[in-house]
Structures are given as C-alpha cells and as structure tokens.
Amino acid sequence: MWRDIFSYASNPEVFFDAVNLRSQLVRAGISAENVSPTRLDEALAGLGEELETSRATWAAFWSSALNKGMRAELLKVVIAQSAPLGLSLGAWIQCMSAPGVFEDEIHLQLLRLLADDVGAFRFEASRPDAFRLIARRHGLSEYSFTPRDLAAVRTIEETMFRLPGLICALSRRSDAFAPELVGFDLGFRSVGLLAAWRAAAQLDESPEWIRLDLSTAQGQCFPAKHTPLTLSRWVADRYGTNPQLEQRVCDGIMWLRRGLLLWDRDLHEQCCVAINPRLAMAVLMQERARVASVYHQDVKLEGKSIADWFKNAAIDPFPFVDAVGRSWLVRPGEPEHSVLLTNLLNGPMFRIFREEDLALIKRWIESLAQDTGKGPPEGKGHMDVALSPTQSVGQGDALLGPEPRTIREAYFLLQGRALAPRTRSFAIGYVRFWLTPSLHSIDKTDRSLPSTWSPGSLRTWLLNAHDKHACEFERQRDDEPPSREAVIEQTLQLAPLTLIDGAWLQGFTDVSLASTRIGSPLFNTYWDELGNGEYKINHPKIYREVLRAMSIELPPTGSRDFALDERLHEKSFRLPVYWLCLGKLPVTFKPEILGMNLAMELSGVGGSYRTARRFLKHYGFPTVFVDIHNTIDNVATGHSAWAADAIDAYMQTASDYADPEVE
User: Fold this and answer.
1) Is the pLDDT of residue 393 over 60?
2) Is the pTM of this model over 0.85?
3) Chain-wide mean pLDDT for the chain?
4) What would the 3-class secondary structure string for 77-102 be?
5) At a CB cut-off of 8 Å and minimum separation 6, what does 285 contact?
6) Does the structure show a pLDDT above 90 at 540?
7) DSSP symbol at 300
8) Cα(642)–Cα(527) distance, rounded to whole angstroms?
9) Helix, strand or coil for residue 467?
10) Do 73 and 200 form a contact (C-beta atoms < 8 A)?
11) Which of 15, 101, 372, 504 has the fewest Cβ atoms within 10 angstroms?
12) In the structure, what pLDDT confidence band is assigned to residue 350 with cuts at 50, 70 and 90?
C-alpha cells in the first residue's frame, strides 16, 4: 500500500481526497486524535526528546556493528532503505505556492525555503540530488532513480515508503493541510540531520550528508540573520497567532514525530537484518518462498520436499534456513566449496540470485562455522506476518470537485494547487480548446519557431526576434500616445493576467522537476516573478502599485470578489485561465508550457515594454513594472534565455530517443 501511495503521489498532477488521507494517517499510526500539545515549544520539545533517544540508539548500534566489521554493509542498507525519504526532502512544501497567494508574505517565505531545498539557480543541486550522489558514490545507483521509478525497486521494504508516501500525498492537498505541512517543515528543520544519517555521515566521507540537514542552508536564498530553521519558525509563529491554526501546526509536528519514530524503527530493523547473517538469510528465504514453492517438488531435505519447506518458510523461514545449514548444500565456513554457491548457481539456479543476495549467502555460510544459536533473533517481530495487503490508491470518485460554469468561476476555482477530477477534466479541455486554433498558424507567421531544431538554432532565432522588437519600437517611438484613460483601462484589463504572472510555471515547484535540466530554469523564472522571497520586488505587488497610482484598488487576486469585479471584462480572464490550467498540468502539457514560457518571456523585451514605459511616464505613472521586466526577461542572460535553455534541454532529450536518420 505505502509503495503505491508513494508512486502515485510522485505525479505532480494527482489528487487525493482529504478525508481518505486522514484515514490513511490513522491507519499508518501517525495521526491520533486529541493527543497533540497546543503550543509550538511544547510540541518541539517532545520531538527533541525523541531525537536524543534516537541518536543514542544509533550511536550504540553503529559501535556494535563496527566491532563486527560490517561498516560497508550497514552504509548500503541505510542508503538503500532510506532512499524514499531521501528523495522526498522538501516535498511537504512543494505545492504551497499558488496564484491565489502570490502576494502573501507567509507563502513567499515558504517558497524561499523550497528554493533553497531545490538548489535554486543551480542544476541538480536539490537535497534529493545530494542523496542521489551519496547513493552513487556507494555503487547504489538503482536507489537514485526518480521517485516513481524508485517505487519499483523491490529490495526496498514496503514500510520504508510509509512516511515519504504520506508526505508526498499530503503535499498534493496543501489547500486542506497547510498548517500541518508547516508543522512538518518546522519539525524536519528542528531535527536537522536524521539520527541514522548522522551516524552514517560520521563513518563516510561523502560531503553531501550535510546537505540532508534541513536546518542548514544550501545556498544564498535567505536574508541576513536567517537560517532555514529560523525562517520556518517565523512562518509557524505567524500561524500561531490563531489558536486553532497553532493547534494544527502542532498536529503536524506530532505527525512527523510519530512518522519518524516508525521510520527510524523500520530502518533499524533492516540494519539488524544486515548484521545478522542468519536473520538476513531468513528474510531472503521468506521473500522467495512464494515463487520457489512452485518448484523443487522432487528434491528432499530431511525427509521433506524443498517445495514444502518453502511453503512453510512463507510464515516461518528459520527452520528451513537451519535445515539448509545442516545439509549437503553448504560446507560451514567454506562458501567457495559449498554446492549452493558453486554447482547449483551455474546450473539449475542460474540467475536466481542477485549479486547482493550472493554476498549475503556467502556471509551466512561463513557464519555457520561459529555457533550463532537457533531460533528467531530477539526483537524480530515482522517475520511471522505478511506485508500489508495492497489497497488501490487513486484520486477518488471521478465526480469529485467542481466544474466551472463560467470563465470567471474558472479563474477563481483555479487559484489553488489541488486539481480535483472534474476540475482537471475542465482544465485539460480548456487547454486543448485554446491550442487547437494555434495549430493552424504554425510556420505561417514571422513569429513562428524554426521548422527544425538543432543545438544553437533557438538562440539565433531568439536574437533575431529581439532585433525585430527593437526595430518595431524605433518605428513607433514618435507616435502619439493613447489617451490617459486608455492607458488606465488597458492596465486594468491586464490585471487578471499580470497579477498571476508566472502561473503557467507553478507545477515546476515540484521537487522532482525543479532541479532538472528542463525544470531548473522554469523554477528559477517562477521564483523571480514572485520576488525571490522579497515582497518589495514581488511582481504582482509592483503591479498593484501601478494600479493604485491610477486610483484603482482591486480585491485580493484569489478571492471570488476579484473574479466577479464588474470593472474587469470577461474577455480579460480568457488567457489567464489558460495560464492557470497549464500550471496545473506540468506533465501532460510540458512541451506546450515550454513554448508558452518562451512566448511570454520574449513578448515584451526590447519592444512593447519600452513602449509601455513611454506611455506610463508620459502620464506620470510608475514605470518600475515594465522596467524590471525589460531587464529580467532579457535574451542574453534573463528569462527569455532561460526559456530557450529549457526548450533546448527538452529537445536534446527528445532527439536522443528519436530514430536515427537513414541515409
């Protein structure tokens, strides 16, 4: 079940029913009613006590393991089994930013925290990327896959997906669980480097371990005197001004506390398996029992067919392990002379075991030269129970969620991040409705992209387009400006569009996308549009200042009042709704988003922004909005250039899979 939830939640476009999610939390043993402290400091103190206990346990365990010469094996177990969590770092706040809160100070700071977690302005520099580097350094590249691919790695225990799966699922419903996710964030940053990782880091020279400490900044995203921990506390304190919200933040901290306790216990159990050869062999036998019981009917061991031994091993594998240890199949202490690892593997059992399985069997045979005792190891409780039954995990009833009836209603409903099934159907239909007419103009205007792509061709096209914008401006620079009233009216009608500037890129805040070669320039553009955490340079805020200079005060963008404001024409919502729909569908419409992004970032540079500046200045209105866009969107090092970089990265990937030309 947990593996399925993790896999499903790795898709940025999925939806979870909030009621079902709460029941999953209860089933997982993470949520409990009426047991959370009501104050932040009290909740954090409990988390701190749990942390100290965990650190002491892991320190003692590692000391014992080192005495047994198991350092390398343990490091591999810790890395492999903690991969789902390592690749989910920061995911709990990945969907907090949305158009309806583009001007909200709290959400701007949450986005700053996320920007540091995903390594803003650097490729493949996220905290999950740091975990990937650790895995690869230890020859464990199969544990450095994308989250969706990682779910298919069956050597990771089901329970190790429980906490990361629920984290990713909750993130998809930030509209319903925002205070709890703020609690998750504060809790993770208060914990710092998890106890198991801290112990591993003390024995391993990989420099990336420190980047898994969420209390420590990765880059330069934070204002003076702030760290990820202090900024996360600042956000939580803002929620704490409301007692009900503070309680929910505390609930989030307690959810994390219980989740980490279970995660820590499960990881410790996997490590115990690794350092106990008999226990590890029992786990291997139990894993293979169902498949192996179909075969071996004609081979006897102590008077019983091996097929029957395997059937019994599905429930209790230890008698079978001990019987094999007493049999002719192995020579205790001499794996190189044991039939199990020589004749059988090169014959009837060819390709049955993986390399790590063979290493395990070798260690077990070596250990048989010593008297390790019989019976299940102390503290081993999960060998006699099967994995949790698989349950279907989906986005729920296809009729969940509202379907917009008007363009204004669509604008309002699409202000958040969650996309219920019916709303998603509308979004997909609206995007296709918008795209269909555009197909007829491809290659038919001077604004069309090159008909074929090759490395460098898009940059040349970009510079040529910029030259055209400049020439157009020069031709029009002496034209009479429109009337003052016309300038004001145009500025007002652009408000639904401009106050959600960058909305088409919101899906690229996903941690699985934000640091990739394609996603990084898109995330960086999105973060720039919102001011990089600085409210004074937040683009929607700057645009509102232009409106106020024109004596126009509009309601908050995410409110229903904004969408219904009669001063705004209905047609002024058509393109913004297209943006909002695209932003919710970064996987389904990735190529279209890339093209849209280039079009928007290039649209005013060198031409219409300069013209708009001339008109605004003529009537004494602020020009800072068009000024900042004419620089930040520039075609050399700005958003237009980044847009071209993202397309080049996408096209390079696509061309790698294209059929080679046949001459």
Assistant:
1) no
2) yes
3) 89
4) HHHHHCHHHHCCCCHHHCCCCCHHHC
5) 310, 313, 317, 320, 321
6) yes
7) E
8) 13
9) helix
10) no
11) 372
12) low
